[in-house]
User: Which sequence fits this backbone?
């Protein structure tokens, strides 16, 4: 469904953020991308929808090659890729409803969107999604009145109303507390299953990734160093991805933490 | 941050010895220049007029008080003109300032090397000339009257508003723009959803702030014949009608106080 072919990104400063990354994501697969800060995780998913222009290499979404598209056709393809951000990236001064509906911008014309006259079907879908994530009563609130977890739910709705085939998720839990993090990850993975969406989730919390996804890809200095099931992440592998650290203790501690939160719930 | 060691103790000082010496020298030069200038100005001043000043000021004060209250009936129209000059001028300025600001902001300009410098030139050139001088020029071109005043205020305000607005545009949160772009929105939609909501409070603040300034500026435009209460002020000054002058100044003061109050209210409401 998504295929990256020798994707390279070199920044103007000369930093090579991605070194010929090869990756294939089949339909409906949820994949976690782990790696230390600066490994190129954000760059990778931004190169897919070309918020960052890749230096070379190809990106195939279905049968369409994305890196060579004109800006008009790129906009059409971006509609098929929903994106969820670390700091939620909601338009703070707009209402929850407006933020959700902004996911339809690629489908409606300028004046319709400017005058907020979205088709009724879009509004229905927005209410359905808000209801699904438990925020139907918040539709009229301004986005900056919401808590972190609520904002991220709105961000999820905005991505899903695009009717995407693929979700690009950039550190969805980095600004959230442990409990909300788990809830958000669970919600994302459930929704992906319901709608048979593929997803690439950037995440630096290894334990959280292991809990929810089917496949983990490890990135180090712009190169893939691990690709496999979540339980194949041995301390040796983690050392290869992140560097030397006492991983045994970390993994064990993670299990405890999990039990604690489960008990607290 | 020099640290020096003396008998086993680490002594920290804010400046090194050389730095504090040059600091001291700079102060010495500064004071010397000030003293010299003082002397020069003093030599070029006719001190008789200065010593005389309190007496003259007292004389004018007695002539100007009490204000000629019945004159107020003739001030309604001019102060209304002044308010209109300020308001219309601000509105016209904003119409032009918004596109100029988008062309000048680094993150929205279509071309950094060609269009941005032109936009910056517009900002600098309209800002650098005082509205009184614009009014003088415009009176020569389109004749005296309120219209010349409106245009003078408008031109002067374009640069001011555009500069503050483009700084606001450059300071927006880029991730919100990214998020809107990622939905497949067009360039104009990104502007309407990603940028405009973020700069709207700044825009409203700038608009009322400039309107407030323009009320003060438009009170003097009449001095050169560009309409408003300044016209009355200059004719009263010409015939040395001090009681009228004092009343006009009171009316201007009231107008400015009211405009300050309004703009404070509006700004408070937005933020």
Assistant:
């Amino acid at each position: 469904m998504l295929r990256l072919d020798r994707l390279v990104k070199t920044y103007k400063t000369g930093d090579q953020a991605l070194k010929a990354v090869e990756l294939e994501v089949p339909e409906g697969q949820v994949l976690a991308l782990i790696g230390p800060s600066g490994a190129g995780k954000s760059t990778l998913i931004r190169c897919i929808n070309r918020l960052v222009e890749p230096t070379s290499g190809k990106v195939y979404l279905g049968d369409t090659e994305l890196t060579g598209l004109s800006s008009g056709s790129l906009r059409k393809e971006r509609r098929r890729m929903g994106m969820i951000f670390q700091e939620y990236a909601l338009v703070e001064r707009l209402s929850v409803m407006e933020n959700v509906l902004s996911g339809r911008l690629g489908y409606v014309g300028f004046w319709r969107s400017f005058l907020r006259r979205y088709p009724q079907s879009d509004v229905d879908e927005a209410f359905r999604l808000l209801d699904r994530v438990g925020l139907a009563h918040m539709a009229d609130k301004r986005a900056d009145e919401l808590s972190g977890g609520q904002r991220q739910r709105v961000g999820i709705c905005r991505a899903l109303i695009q009717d995407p085939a693929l979700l690009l998720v950039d550190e969805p839990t980095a600004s959230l507390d442990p409990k909300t993090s788990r809830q958000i990850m669970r919600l994302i993975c459930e929704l992906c299953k319901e709608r048979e969406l593929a997803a690439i989730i950037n995440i630096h919390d290894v334990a959280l990734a292991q809990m929810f996804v089917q496949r983990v890809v490890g990135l180090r200095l712009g190169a893939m160093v691990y690709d496999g099931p979540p339980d194949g992440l041995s301390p040796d592998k983690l050392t290869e991805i992140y560097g030397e650290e006492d991983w045994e203790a970390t993994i064990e501690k993670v299990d405890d933490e999990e039990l604690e939160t489960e008990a607290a719930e | 941050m020099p640290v020096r060691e003396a008998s086993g103790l680490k002594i920290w000082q804010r400046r090194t010895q050389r730095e504090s010496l040059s600091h001291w020298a700079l102060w010495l030069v500064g004071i010397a220049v000030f003293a010299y200038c003082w002397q020069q100005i003093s030599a070029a001043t006719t001190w008789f007029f200065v010593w005389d000043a309190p007496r003259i000021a007292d004389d004018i004060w007695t002539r100007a008080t009490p204000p000629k209250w019945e004159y107020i009936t003739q001030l309604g129209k001019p102060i209304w003109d002044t308010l209109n000059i300020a308001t219309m001028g601000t509105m016209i300025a904003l119409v032009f300032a918004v596109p100029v600001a988008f062309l000048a902001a680094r993150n929205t300009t279509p071309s950094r090397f060609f269009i941005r410098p032109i936009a910056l030139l517009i900002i600098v050139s309209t800002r650098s000339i005082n509205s009184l001088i614009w009014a003088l020029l415009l009176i020569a071109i389109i004749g005296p009257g309120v219209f010349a005043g409106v245009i003078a205020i408008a031109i002067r305000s374009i640069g001011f508003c555009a500069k503050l607005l483009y700084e606001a545009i450059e300071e927006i949160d880029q991730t919100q723009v990214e998020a809107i772009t990622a939905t497949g929105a067009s360039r104009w939609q990104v502007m309407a959803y990603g940028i405009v909501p973020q700069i709207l409070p700044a825009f409203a603040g700038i608009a009322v702030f400039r309107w407030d300034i323009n009320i003060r500026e438009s009170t003097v435009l009449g001095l050169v014949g560009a309409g408003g209460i300044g016209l009355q002020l200059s004719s009263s000054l010409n015939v040395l009608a001090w009681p009228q002058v004092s009343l006009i100044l009171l009316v201007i003061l009231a107008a400015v106080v009211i405009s300050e109050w309004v703009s404070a209210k509006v700004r408070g409401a937005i933020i």
Notes: The interface with chain B takes residues 49, 51, 75-79, 81, 83, 85, 87, 89-94, 102-107, 110, 113-114, 155, 158, 162, 168 of chain A (CB under 8 Å). Residues 258-265 of chain A have pLDDT under 50 and may be disordered. DSSP finds ten helices and ten strands in chain A. The domain at 2-264 of chain A is CATH 3.40.50.300 (Rossmann fold).
